[in-house]
Write a structure and sequence with these properties.
The complex is a heterotrimer of chains A (about 270), B (about 325) and C (about 300).
Chain A: E1 4-14, H1 19-25, E2 31-42, E3 47-51, H2 58-66, E4 73-78, H3 90-99, E5 100-103, H4 117-127, H5 134-147, H6 164-176, E6 182-186, H7 194-211, E7 214-219, H8 222-228, E8 231-236, E9 239-245, H9 246-251, H10 256-264
Helix pairs in contact in A: 4-5, 4-6, 6-7
Chain B: E1 6-17, E2 20-32, E3 37-41, H1 48-56, E4 63-72, E5 75-76, E6 89-92, H2 96-99, H3 106-117, H4 122-135, H5 152-164, E7 170-174, H6 182-199, E8 202-207, H7 210-216, E9 219-224, E10 227-233, H8 234-239, H9 244-252
Parallel strand pairs in B: 3-8, 3-9, 6-7, 7-8
Antiparallel strand pairs in B: 1-2, 1-4, 4-5, 9-10
Helix pairs in contact in B: 3-4, 4-5
Chain C: H1 2-5, H2 8-14, H3 17-34, H4 36-39, H5 81-117, H6 119-133, H7 137-151, H8 154-172, H9 175-188, H10 192-199, H11 204-240, H12 252-262, H13 269-296
Classes of the chains: A alpha/beta (about 270), B alpha/beta (about 325), C mainly alpha (about 300).
Chain lengths: ~270, ~325, ~300
């Protein structure tokens, strides 16, 4: 069985005016379907990429997988558990939370600017009561920093003292802190410069190999996805229009939208033999 | 050799902060020829937008031009850009809403721009406005629509129409497609290429995206820490990059179908230094794997009109 | 400390004469109020030390009957004005500080809850704030003062008058805090670090206190300084109107009211010195607050 199974995921947003106003103006209810009947599965230890343009619903799917947004219909099973199962008890919910972590798009908004790096990394460790002993906790923080290519003395600094790429590393370290199995990467490099992007992508690859991590990788950039993903799903207006193994899908796209995306993506490949 | 449309000679833009001086653009020289698209590429903080502002005469405190000259059609404009700004040189920004007045129709704004620069009667100007809209791919029937009724890509087209209205010979496009979706980006870049071809307008395209450079430009200048690292035709620079930084940049750019999943991307260690921390010699020296003797102490000149790297000095001594 | 000395805030302070001068005046006035017992030549709150014969002595002139001289003269009851201002400042400052604390506590709490929880709680709090804002805050303060005085039994009314004053000013000034904090909270709660906190299972309460609160406080500091000036003026106004502190323990406002009675009979100093002190203090705080706002958030200029 797959590690992650999303079946019939649907999310609607009610954008209509309040009920009372509708009664007076006679306006109809206005429901936006951001994600419509999306199903896919991710095998353990692999990377599944969702590609799509703005408004395609990719971030909404990320939030539903992360358990911070409930689907309107459909369900997500992670290792056989569902965040929104009403019978899920607190202990199991905590265990499930510990398995899923996220790396975000903005290196600026994803770290609390008033917290020191050490405290940011300690938060998941403390929240899940992973380590009792204070000295061991400190050691773990240093270990995490070194794992993402930063140094021990960075833990006493604040986020604004780091560059975008370094902050993304810290964000990754925070995601790793509670030994997750699935990491959702929501456009993790779209705010970074090319040379830094390569560093972060390589780091993600290394961590996957070392820890057997499963990734859901969300991006608008087909070039980045083609170097990261085992499998790609193409999203358009909240629907999954095409899905397939990376090499097959890129070499032989079926859906017109995928073909258009491929043709439109800027690529330096033509210059490099 | 024909005289270039725009010539920048040893331009230095300095930032004054707390009585200390930092060079945001350092001794930069380049030319733009008629009808070409020149790409200015670099990472954030490389000073690429600053070059655009300097040409437009938009450098403002705490920045100032501390040395160098800018010539446009052999007329010096760095001291006073007023006569050419918005008329002979226009600018397109990343966010189309910066250039559009939300309270007035696009037709209104187009007419105003046309008639400020070209003496035309109102019906003639209206006709011209419609033609411009058609040229950038907007239905002329929408001339009385307000900016907010357009999508992001359409707005950027309106901005391009506005930029074209005074018939400029140079357009500076500062990250014109960064805020747009990939499919819309391709359309906008195509439009810019068309304009360049049909009208003979020159374009300076400022971007951080090597893919956009590859798809759009004729020549490219690579900036690093406010300095010119390499300049040449897009083909030469991407196919045979000279400067180790350009090499790294090209190799670090992911390609579609380029690598198998197991391969890792090439990565340049470290990151670009902050303005207050630029090393004495070559700015790229601490990240460079091919450094030679001179790199640490001396700033390299532009060798062979191509690259500012000591490796291309005839007398370079291996370390 | 070294970090503070190198900060942009301190740098901007060093190059802003307005900020330096207003800061010096504020600190000077606060220090004189704190050390009033040491500086003041008399204790004006001690009825036994008053000599009615000293009444209406002009500043720096010997009294006709007792031959005593006073720096700023005396009032109708023979209280040394200089000492009275020092002690009065103490009361004004105390009332101001406590009222701002109350307003801040209330406003930050309500704003945080309104912004973070949203829904009908948000609507309820903010509509209530809107209604309160339609009345001048001094009117609200007088209303609360009147109600409180009415509720309190007559025997404690006198001792409680300062507490009532603090409450009425505090309750009338919470709205700007709540509005600002709500606005910043709405921005902060959409940021990704809040999602990260949710993902490790933090409760709403923990997210609000540990993550959002520290990030919405810097505009609060600016509002607090400006509200402090407002509170001191409000206290003076209430005392001037005779609903503030009792005349046996005069604050600046009470002194100005007393002085006003004698202004047209030529005893100008009774009004003049308290008024100038109030003016200098309130103006300095406002200028300092403006500078702080511009420095912390240049976009607001």
């Amino acid at each position: 069985m797959s590690y992650v199974t999303a079946s019939g995921l649907t999310r609607q947003y009610d954008l209509s005016d309040p009920w009372f106003i509708r009664m007076i103006t006679g306006r109809k209810a206005n429901v936006l379907t951001a994600v419509n009947q999306v199903s896919f599965s991710i095998e353990k230890g692999t990377t599944y990429a969702l590609v799509g343009e703005s408004g395609s619903g990719k971030s909404t799917i990320a939030k539903m997988l992360a358990g911070v947004l409930a689907p309107s219909q459909g369900s997500v099973q992670i290792d056989g558990h569902d965040f929104n199962n009403p019978r899920l008890d607190n202990a199991n919910k905590k265990m499930l939370r510990q398995r899923v972590q996220m790396v975000f798009q903005s290196p600026y908004a994803s770290l609390n600017p008033r917290w020191k790096i050490g405290d940011i990394l300690l938060e998941p460790i403390n929240a899940f009561n992973l380590i009792e002993d204070k000295a061991t906790r400190q050691k773990r923080v240093i270990e995490l920093l070194e794992q993402v290519g930063m140094s021990a003395h960075d833990q006493t600094k604040y986020p604004h003292e780091f560059s975008g790429g370094q902050r993304q590393r810290i964000s990754i370290a925070r995601a790793l802190a509670c030994h997750p199995e699935l990491i959702i990467c929501d456009e993790p490099t779209s705010a970074l410069d090319v040379s830094v992007q390569a560093q972060v992508l390589n780091l993600l690859k290394d961590l996957q190999q070392e820890n057997g991590l499963t990734y859901l990788f969300i991006s608008h950039d087909l070039a980045v996805i083609s170097t990261m993903a085992n499998k790609i799903g193409v999203l358009k207006d909240g629907e999954l229009v095409e899905e397939g193994e990376t090499s097959g899908l890129l070499a032989n796209p079926q859906h017109a939208y995928t073909k258009m995306l491929l043709a439109a993506a800027p690529d330096i490949g033509a210059y490099i033999s | 050799m024909p005289t270039p449309l725009l010539q920048i000679n040893q331009l230095t833009v300095t930032l004054k902060k707390r009585q200390a001086l930092f060079k945001a653009v350092d001794n930069l020289s380049l030319t733009v020829n008629k009808g070409e698209i020149l790409g200015l590429v670099g990472e954030s903080g490389a000073g690429k937008s600053m070059v655009g502002s300097a040409i437009m005469g938009l450098i403002d405190k705490p920045l100032f031009i501390s040395s160098g000259e800018i010539y446009f059609k052999q007329r010096r404009i760095d001291t006073n850009a007023q006569p050419v700004r918005g008329a002979e040189i226009s600018m397109i920004f990343q966010d189309p809403l910066v250039s559009l007045n939300p309270l007035r129709t696009i037709g209104d704004q187009l007419l105003e721009t046309i008639r400020t620069h070209i003496p035309l009667s109102k019906p003639k100007a209206l006709e011209r406005a419609k033609r411009l809209l058609k040229e950038v791919g907007i239905d002329p029937a929408r001339i009385n629509a307000y900016p907010h009724t357009f999508s992001g890509g359409m707005r950027q087209r309106v901005v391009i129409a506005l930029a074209l209205a005074p018939e400029p010979s140079l357009i500076i496009a500062d990250e014109p497609t960064t805020a747009l979706d990939v499919s819309v980006q391709a359309q906008i870049l195509d439009l810019l290429k068309q304009l360049c071809k049909h009208r003979g307008t020159s374009i300076i395209l400022i971007t951080h995206d090597m893919g956009v450079i590859a798809d759009t430009t004729d020549r490219v200048a690579v900036l690093y820490s406010g300095r010119l690292a390499e300049i040449g035709t897009t083909y030469d620079v991407l196919k045979n990059p000279c400067h180790p930084y350009t090499k790294g940049l090209v190799a670090a750019t992911p390609q579609i179908n380029g690598a198998s999943l197991k391969d890792k991307l090439f990565q340049i260690p470290g990151s670009m230094p902050d303005l207050n921390n630029i090393p004495a010699g070559c700015a790229f020296y601490p990240r460079c794997t091919q450094a030679v003797c001179q790199c640490e102490g001396e700033q390299p000149a532009l060798f062979d009109n191509r690259t500012a790297c000591w490796l291309f000095d005839k007398g370079a001594k291996p370390k | 400390m070294r970090r503070f000395l190198q900060s942009d805030l301190f740098y901007s302070f060093r190059y802003s004469p307005v900020a330096i001068v207003s800061f010096v005046i504020i600190v000077f006035i606060i220090l004189t109020a704190i050390f009033a017992d040491l500086i003041a030549p008399n204790n004006p709150f001690d009825p036994a030390s008053l000599n009615l014969m000293n009444g209406f002595t002009p500043p720096m002139q010997a009294n006709d009957f007792t031959g005593e001289t006073f720096l700023m003269g005396t009032d109708d009851q023979g209280r040394d004005l200089f000492s009275t201002i020092l002690y009065g400042l103490r009361i004004s400052l105390f009332v101001g500080v406590m009222a701002v604390m109350l307003a801040m506590l209330l406003g930050v709490m309500l704003g945080l809850v309104a912004g973070f929880v949203g829904g009908w709680i948000d609507s309820f709090i903010m509509r209530f704030a809107d209604i309160q804002m339609t009345f001048p805050s001094i009117l609200v303060a007088m209303l609360i003062y009147g109600v409180a005085k009415g509720i309190l039994p007559p025997e404690v009314r006198y001792e409680m008058s300062i507490a009532v004053l603090i409450m009425s000013i505090g309750l009338s000034e919470w709205v700007p805090f709540a509005r600002t904090v709500r606005g910043s909270t709405l921005v902060e709660k959409e940021k990704e670090y809040i999602i990260a906190a949710k993902m490790v299972g933090l409760s709403r309460y923990q997210i609000m206190i540990r993550h959002i609160l520290p990030n919405v406080l810097s505009p609060v500091l600016v509002i607090a300084t400006i509200t402090f000036a407002l509170a001191i003026i409000a206290e003076a106004t209430l005392s001037f109107l005779g609903v503030g502190v009792p005349t046996t323990k005069p604050s600046l406002g009470t002194l100005i009211r007393i002085g006003q009675d004698f202004l047209f009979s030529g005893e100008w100093w009774i009004l003049f010195f308290p008024a100038v002190t109030l003016l200098a203090f309130a103006l300095s705080i406002n200028l300092f607050g403006d500078w702080l706002r511009d420095t912390l958030n240049p976009k607001l200029k």
